[in-house]
Amino acid sequence: MGNRPRMMSMINAAWTTQVLATACELGVPDAMQEPTPLAAIAMRTGAHAPSLERLLLALVTLGVCEETSPRVFALLPDGELLRDDHRESVAAWARMSGAQVWNNWTLLAESVRTGESARRKVQGTDDFGYLDANSQKARAFNTAMVNLTRPVAEAAAREIDWRGVHHAVDVGGGVGELLAGIVSAHPHMRGTVFDLQHAVEGARAHLLMRGVADRCDVVGGSFFEAIPPGADAYLLKSVLHNWNDERSRSILAQVRKAAKPGSQVMLFERVVPERRSATELDREMARSDLNMLVGCGGCERTEASFREMLAGADLEPAYVKPLANGISVIAARAYR
Question: Which terminus of the chain has a smaller tally of CB atoms within 10 A, N or C?
């Protein structure tokens, strides 16, 4: 006999995304620097106090905050992660998940039926060019990517041997959080952030804020057309999973064209197991895989798929190493 309560819990799970996204959209966590009366939180956020109380009580049930005394609330450690000024903040990702990502998922059935992404259905294209024309969406997207990239960058700086790398190009690097995290930990390195025009000014500001602007530059362009040549390493974090196999091969072909003999190519991606089971890790892999399908027509891949794709681009696969947050580095080298 099936577990009906468990099934109902999964069906109703969407409410947590909207509660967390709404809290961040209103700035509730940032308004609670200490145990704070409801009236003060309402004043700081401009929210309707009775409705805000209901939201806060929902956050209590999620372990985000606690009611320390009647109508006085304080953030718990998990809730601190929803503050914009927290070093490990996921606030921007929460906001994006409650808006653009949420809208994409409403078209999942259509994506499964047709193989086309929500972005293609709505905008007619799977690419990221729409961000060039909308600075607000570009900022929101790039900030969310910083949220997701920071722990991976810290792990990459710590776990990968960078001694032979003097110049690295962060391909599709957004505002450069991956590069900044690595270069800041390795003073001998310099780098280039390469992405579409929407990321250029944000990248310059971010690299300055991270204290590495004197060792990093920013170049605008499309990785389908050309990539800055001659670097010791080419870094691609969460790039290939945005694209189908054909487009991914095109990206790797441009990387190979830019690479010199001995250049390293490092893909920072989820590596899907050959067989799935009902584990938390596999559920996260499945969530991300379907998020790529509905969002931009991409997919998550197995190690065998990555190795085949790299070899097809005349790049010799070297090793795969887990880093952080389900992301691994899949390393290869250009030998000719």
Answer: N
